[in-house]
Write a structure and sequence with these properties.
The protein is mainly β and about 90 residues long. It has one helix and seven strands.
């Protein structure tokens, strides 16, 4: 499950569902919501149930979700190699 931020208005929305096997992000729903905007990962939710979500609240440090695939199911999370980082609260 991911919280995605769209570049056009910085709105954020959760996509995907819980812990059940076979659950996935509905990329066609993401594409509809994005309406041509670029997608960034704000939160990558921990699916183990331990609450170790990966978060990045600074927009300039959020990794981008690649939309260059010809498949609406296959996507990549791309880190820029400079300052993109996701952090977990392990306390």
């Amino acid at each position: 499950m991911l919280r995605i931020r769209r570049s056009s208005d910085n709105a954020e929305l959760d996509f995907g569902s819980g812990l059940a096997m076979g659950e996935y992000v509905d990329w066609s729903a993401v594409d509809t919501w994005l309406s041509g905007s670029t997608a960034f990962v704000a939160i990558w939710y921990d699916q183990s149930g331990n609450g170790f979500d990966l978060k990045q609240s600074t927009a300039g440090k959020q990794p981008v979700i690649s939309n260059s695939s010809t498949s609406s199911v296959t996507r990549s999370v791309l880190f820029d190699g400079v300052n993109d980082v996701m952090q977990a609260d392990l306390a």
